[in-house]
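>> received
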Amino acid sequence: MASTAPRVQPGSFLTLHYRLAGPAGDIINTFADKPATLTVGAGELSPAVEQRLLGLEEGTRAQFELPAGEAFGDRNPEMVQWVARKLLVQMGDPHETYHLGDVVSFPTPDGLGQYAGSVRQLGEDSDGDGQPDAVLFDFNHPLAGQPVTFEVQVIGVL
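>> returned
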């Protein structure tokens, strides 16, 4: 007799645990916390990751290995950019201090969304106020250009 458990389809609303990891370890892992909820096709996961979910039955636990660059694209050197201190002050807290490895969220130009960059380098402090004149950010996804392990446990499918 065929299983009647719901299967993941485009537009499905899912409750799931998932883990995304690269060669350096986990980037996100919900298995120890409360499960995530998302809609397939809403852009919350990359298309390559969502593709692995399609057809899975409710209750399935699976792990997928995605080759370098498939999950989050290749690294783009143009996505590594210096951002002037003046602009950082306009977009956020003027007293914010930045440290190597920090992940900072920026509003999109239309103000409706956000994107993140990680701090790669601090510029010089020409006026001696203890703040760099500019900060070098990497706006690539942390797993861009890397092989990715995607582990999922599908808890509910609506």
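>> DSSP finds two helices and nine strands in the chain.
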